[in-house]
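Hi all, posting the design record for the shared folder.

TITLE: backbone redesign
STEP: 1 of 1
STRUCTURE INPUT:
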């Protein structure tokens, strides 16, 4: 028996490869499916099934390509309705993989088709639970992503309560929980950095699995403090549900190396967003005017989804040399299939062609402290999440979270210098680049963010924020 978790950090997503006696199954695959096929071929195994726990919102799954390339049927749980051929399993249905059995546990709540897959060994003993977005380590799936006119968030939370207690908490404590996501995913709010655990430990430490918890208490706690989901989520759901282009087609179409002249012409003629994926402290020194920065080194794909709300938006890429294909792939993982080319040779070719460039001033934390010594009322913009801001922030700072920058644009003054920071510098440069592209010029980025501010020891901070402010920013 082989169980392998294939975890992708930038999406905080876990896919699973299960193998026994020359047969294999893949659960919740990423869009690029060659690693699963190569793994099976290397082991002399045949992929027999492609299991999906639900219609994912935060990434485009690889079920279609994997099924087409291997002949393995796609399996969803009850209530799933797809625009392509799939096996819609019944609750309790069994699937054989070598001498292992996978049992379908329908667990509605996160979505109505949400399903967990229970792995039984050759003796029929419960060994592992592939819990999708129903149960995370430290949390459970948010119940606000699959609302319909006849189902409220509270209705879905109630279904989730019943699913957890009737289908999951009745399993043996030694069962290993393998969730679809970990810390950093927007599919939950309190996920652990651990990516697997025993069910027994989760019964002890996961707030949502408290034995004496009433349904009313559960609904209140699970729905409290949910941030607004990224705008690309419903679009990814539809792609997963109705179908999408093959990743091979998307990658081939996007791999268009453009000279500076061709790149500029494409930007002018198409209205494409120029997306620069270089590190923040490289981008700020020089970039193509009106481009936005989302560094490939961080949680790139989710931030693209949050800041470029339409997955159909045409994109032109500026990357570090050699990272073009990786960037295109990561965009495709979240459904951004309309890359129309990239700057051949990277930003240096733009500079060498004597084209116009722009820049953003970035200063260290100590220099900001010097500014505040002379200008105590200087405007500090903190673009971290409200919860981060509430935990601790610079006295007098204004919290305008990056997640909501388009909605909060009017809160950024054009006639006053703004000193912008996040936790470490990744998000603040995104914010500064977006503001710059929209005509804001009085911008100063704080290199190293709040971490550097704390380390300097020169700032007064507080750990309280007005509750009404938090409410307005959720």
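Okay, here is what came back for every position:
SEQUENCE:
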């Amino acid at each position: 028996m082989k169980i392998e978790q294939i975890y992708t950090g930038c999406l905080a997503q876990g896919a699973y490869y299960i193998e026994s006696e020359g047969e294999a199954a893949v659960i919740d695959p990423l869009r690029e499916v060659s690693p699963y096929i190569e793994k099976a071929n290397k082991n002399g195994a045949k992929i027999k099934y492609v299991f999906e726990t639900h219609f994912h919102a935060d990434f485009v799954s690889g079920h279609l390509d994997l099924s087409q390339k291997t002949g393995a049927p796609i399996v969803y749980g009850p209530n799933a309705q797809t625009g392509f051929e799939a096996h819609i399993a019944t609750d309790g249905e069994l699937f054989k993989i070598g001498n292992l059995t996978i049992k379908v546990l329908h667990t509605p709540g996160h979505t109505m088709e949400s399903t967990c897959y229970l792995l039984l060994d050759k003796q029929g003993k419960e060994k592992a639970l592939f819990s999708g977005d129903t149960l995370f380590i430290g949390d459970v799936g948010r119940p606000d992503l699959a609302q319909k006119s006849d189902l409220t968030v509270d209705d879905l939370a109630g279904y989730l309560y019943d699913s957890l207690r009737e289908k999951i908490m009745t399993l043996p404590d030694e069962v290993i929980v393998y969730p679809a996501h970990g810390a950093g995913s927007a599919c939950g709010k309190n996920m652990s950095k651990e990516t697997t655990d025993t069910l027994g430990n989760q019964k002890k430490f996961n707030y949502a699995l408290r034995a004496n918890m009433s349904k009313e208490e559960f609904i209140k706690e699970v729905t409290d403090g949910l941030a607004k989901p990224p705008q690309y989520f419903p679009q990814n759901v539809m792609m997963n549900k109705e179908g999408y282009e093959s990743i091979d087609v998307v990658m081939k179409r996007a791999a268009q190396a453009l000279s500076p002249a061709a790149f500029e012409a494409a930007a002018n003629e198409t209205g494409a967003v120029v997306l620069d994926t270089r590190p923040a402290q490289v981008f700020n020194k020089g970039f193509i005017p009106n481009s936005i920065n989302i560094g490939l080194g961080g949680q790139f794909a989710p931030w693209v989804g949050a800041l470029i709300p339409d997955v159909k938006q045409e994109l032109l890429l500026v990357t570090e040399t050699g990272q073009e294909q990786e960037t295109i792939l990561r965009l495709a993982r979240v459904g951004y299939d309309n890359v129309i080319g990239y700057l051949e040779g990277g930003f240096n070719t733009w500079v060498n062609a004597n084209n116009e460039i722009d820049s953003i001033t970035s200063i260290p934390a100590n220099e900001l402290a010097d500014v505040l010594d002379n200008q105590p009322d200087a405007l500090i913009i903190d673009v971290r999440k409200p919860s981060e801001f509430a935990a601790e922030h610079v006295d007098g700072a204004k919290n305008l979270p990056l997640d909501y920058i388009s909605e909060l644009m009017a809160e950024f003054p054009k006639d006053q210098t703004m000193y912008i920071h996040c936790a470490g510098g990744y998000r603040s440069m995104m914010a500064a680049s977006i503001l710059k592209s929209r005509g804001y010029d009085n911008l100063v980025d704080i290199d190293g963010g709040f971490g550097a501010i704390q380390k300097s020891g020169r700032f007064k901070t507080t750990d309280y924020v007005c509750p009404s402010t938090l409410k307005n920013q959720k």
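COMMENT: The chain has 17 helices and 24 strands.
Let me know if anyone wants the other runs.
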